[in-house]
């Protein structure tokens, strides 16, 4: 599943279409696409792993899920996976194997934009308040909670927890205040590192534990385990990461 930094890169690729008018809309997403024709793409907003194409009177939410993709100007995949295509005089956008929904402006106003880990509106103190309210939650679930850290995915989770020396099954309420603040700060900082490495095509070279087998600090074999309520893969070192 693409994480927040990858969604920002997608936004950058779609920005040239802002200000242009839709001439044709199709695809098998389950909503009426006819109202999109003749509307101008006003802006593109991102919230964690979601992208919002904002038009004159409505918006379209794109969520790439686990295997979604997109292309600009070139339809490269079978029609059966094409959820939405948008055509403009300047080119075309195609979205495949993803969730596509029409939403109104009222819905956009309900989103807590300050929860987006990579947004200028990000509020770390709000994230800390939310964490304090969930003392029995495992930190692996907390990091993946899109209401707290919108945009964080499994890669960021594993790498952040290793870098701050915390085991994924630690309870949020057991973290010392200093370690809780470190968790919040590292989640944001690593997300921007992730973005830079994606631009450089070097992301995997910087992974310390994600999909790895040996701890880069002590040389001990890493634990690979499905953790938390989401049962997502965790990679961690029992020696260099503390269980709180």
UniProtKB/TrEMBL annotation:
CDD domains in the cross-refs: BaFpgNei_N_2
Name the chain's protein: Endonuclease-8
The UniProt catalytic activity note for this protein reads: Hydrolysis of DNA containing ring-opened 7-methylguanine residues, releasing 2,6-diamino-4-hydroxy-5-(N-methyl)formamidopyrimidine
What domain of life does the native source organism fall in?
A: Bacteria
Task: List the taxonomic lineage.
Answer: Bacteria, Pseudomonadati, Bacteroidota, Flavobacteriia, Flavobacteriales
Q: Where is the Formamidopyrimidine-DNA glycosylase catalytic domain?
A: 2-91
Q: Which UniProt keywords apply?
A: DNA damage, DNA repair, DNA-binding, Endonuclease, Glycosidase, Hydrolase, Lyase, Multifunctional enzyme, Nuclease
Listed GO biological process terms: base-excision repair
Q: What Pfam families does the record point to?
A: Fapy_DNA_glyco, H2TH
Q: Which Gene3D superfamilies match?
A: 1.10.8.50, MutM-like, N-terminal
* Keyword check for DNA repair: yes
Q: Which family does it belong to?
A: Belongs to the FPG family.
Q: Where is the signal peptide?
A: none
According to the UniProt entry, its GO molecular function terms are: damaged DNA binding; DNA-(apurinic or apyrimidinic site) endonuclease activity; lyase activity; oxidized purine nucleobase lesion DNA N-glycosylase activity; zinc ion binding
Species assigned in the record: Chryseobacterium oleae
């Amino acid at each position: 599943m693409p994480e927040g930094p990858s969604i920002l890169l997608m936004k950058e690729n779609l920005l040239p279409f802002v200000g242009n008018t839709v001439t044709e809309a199709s695809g098998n997403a389950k909503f009426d696409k006819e109202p999109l024709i003749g509307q101008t793409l006003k802006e593109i907003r991102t919230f964690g792993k979601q992208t919002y194409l904002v038009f004159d009177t409505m918006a379209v939410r794109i969520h790439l899920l686990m295997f979604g993709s997109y292309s600009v100007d070139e339809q490269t995949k079978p029609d059966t996976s094409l959820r939405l295509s948008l055509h403009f005089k300047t080119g075309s956008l195609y979205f495949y194997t993803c969730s596509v929904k029409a939403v109104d402006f009222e819905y956009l106003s309900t989103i807590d934009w300050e929860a987006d880990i990579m947004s200028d509106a990000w509020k770390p103190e709000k994230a800390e308040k939310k964490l304090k309210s969930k003392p029995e939650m495992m930190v692996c679930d907390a990091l993946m909670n899109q209401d707290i850290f919108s945009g964080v995915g499994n890669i960021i989770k594993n790498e952040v927890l290793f870098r701050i020396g915390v085991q994924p099954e630690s309870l949020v309420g057991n973290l010392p205040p200093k370690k809780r603040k470190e968790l919040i700060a590292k989640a944001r900082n690593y997300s921007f590192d992730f973005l830079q490495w994606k631009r450089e095509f070097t992301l995997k070279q910087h992974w310390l534990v994600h999909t790895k087998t040996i701890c880069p600090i002590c040389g001990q074999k890493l634990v690979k385990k499905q953790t938390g309520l989401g049962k997502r893969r965790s990679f961690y070192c029992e020696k260099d990461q503390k269980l709180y």
